[in-house]
Amino acid sequence: MPFHQDLRTGNLGPVNPTAVSPRQSHYRVRISTNGRLVLPQPVRRAKGWRDRDELLLIETADGVLIGKPAEVLHAIQARFHEPDSVTDELIAERRAQAAKDATE
Description:
By secondary structure, the protein is an alpha+beta fold. The protein has a single domain, classed as Pemi-like Protein 1, Chain: D (Ribbon). It has three helices and four strands; from the N terminus they run E-E-H-E-E-H-H. A two-stranded antiparallel sheet has the order 1-2. Strands 3-4 form a two-stranded antiparallel sheet. The longest helix has 18 residues, at 86-103. 0% of the residues are buried.
């Protein structure tokens, strides 16, 4: 079972299996004395990250989210999106009514 380290406590705990990508790999990296973190080449290739790309790093309750700004925004939106929310139902009903009214 894969583990992650809680940034707040430093404790190791199991990774939520629903949050693990099917092609996810695990790497151990170190932070250099000047604060740099080297991302392994297979990770950079898989994500399409190149030298000098700007990445966004956000600390969350579960750890750290890192990616290109658009990727991080999408991940955050997906985390908070409720597919069966009342808002989605209302929008669907309004669109259906508008389509019905347009055909009459």
